[in-house]
Amino acid sequence: MILDAFRLDGAVALVTGASAGLGAAMAVALAEAGADVAAHGNTRSPSDTCARVNALGRRAAALTGDLADRATSGRLVGETIARLGTLDILINNAGVIHRTPAAEFSDADWDRLIEVNLTSAFRLARAAGRHMIASARGGKIVNIASVLSFQGGIMVPAYTAAKGGLAQLTKALANEWAPSGVNVNAIAPGYMNTDNTTALRADPVRSRQILERIPAGRWGAPADVAGAAVFLASSAASYVHGHVFVVDGGWMGR
Q1: Residue 29: partners with Cβ closer than 8 Å, 6 or more residues away
Q2: Domain map of the chain by residue range?
Q3: What is the pLDDT of residue 171?
Q4: Which of 159, 177, 219, 251 is catalytic?
Q5: CB 163 within 8 A of CB 120
Q6: Helices 71-84 and 120-135 sit at what angle, rounded to 10 degrees?
Q7: Cα dihedral angle (194, 44, 245, 124), rounded to 10 degrees?
Q8: 45 or 1: whose pLDDT is higher?
Q9: Does the structure show a pLDDT above 90 at 43?
Q10: Where are the alpha helices (DSSP H) in the chain?
């Protein structure tokens, strides 16, 4: 049956930035589809997410580490394999944002955002890809991009540069790894109700401007991204390579 193609029974997933928000929603959705999940958190423990995964009868592993530290990426992949036996799915979700006019944007802030939002995603994908290719089972890598992969944004130069780069990295890795059975795709969320948009939602003028442009008439919820993640992580997406899947309430179409 076609619905069986969306099942993830027996698969092991690593989701970065899974303590809350989009990452937590995707981690739980993968578990609902049958996957065991390693949930990563940076400054916030992913213990609540792991408890929700366990409540679904799936195995969970709580991992921590600062992705601004280049040693963290390889360690997270290694710990996932050591604790859960393998790695079939990687969701590169962890990210940070900093809002400052470009003329005042510091080198330190630029370096940190590029490191966490783009370079760590490459390093995680590289480590996961090596394992997936060597295992001969293939795998699924899903990068969390943004509508700012296509647009410039306002006062977020480093975030926009990183997310634009992540969309292109998705295509580059897909070109190389598709013959080995590794699907590399991305999800580009629109304006979502998460910690990253707290300042925008608190600004009555900017919030109104954003809502007026979204055809769906509301901010996205973390659950709105979960279905796309399950699809791209499943065999239902076995012929989808290098695609940036926009989940934005219609924002890009207006």
Answers
A1: 223, 226, 227, 229, 230
A2: 2-247
A3: 98
A4: 159
A5: no
A6: 40
A7: 160
A8: 45
A9: no
A10: 21-32, 47-55, 71-84, 107-114, 120-135, 157-177, 198-202, 204-213, 223-233
Q: Nearest-CA neighbor of 89 among 228, 248, 233?
A: 233
Token readout for 103 is 């003329």
Q: Which amino acid would we find at residue 229?
A: A
pLDDT digits (tens, 9 = 90+) for 145-176: 999 999 999 999 999 999 999 999 999 999 99
Q: Which helix (H) or strand (E) holds 141?
A: strand 139-144
Q: Give the contacts of 162 (CB within 8 A, at least 6 positions apart).
A: 95, 113, 114, 117, 118
Adjacent-strand bridge partners of 144: 187
Take residue 168 and report the two structure tokens written for it. Answer: 């292109």
Residue 191 falls in the annotated catalytic set: no
Residues in the chain, overall count = 254
**pTM beyond 0.90:** yes
Alpha carbon distance, N-terminus to C-terminus of the chain:
36
Q: How far apart are CA 53 and CA 127, in angstroms?
A: 24
205: tokens are: 């003028």
Query: What residues form DSSP beta bridges with 201?
Result: none
**Buried b / exposed e across 108-126, counting CB within 10 Å, b at 16+?**
eebebbbbbbbbbbbbbbe
Tokens of 239: 């012929």
Whether the Cβ atoms of residue 148 and residue 156 lie closer than 8 Å to each other:
yes
Structure confidence at residue 1 (pLDDT): 59
According to the CATH classification, is domain 2-247 in 3.40.50.720? yes
Token pair 């944004």: residue: 153
36 beta partners: 12
pLDDT 10s digits, 44-64 = 899 999 999 999 999 999 999
- 191, two tokens: 């304006």
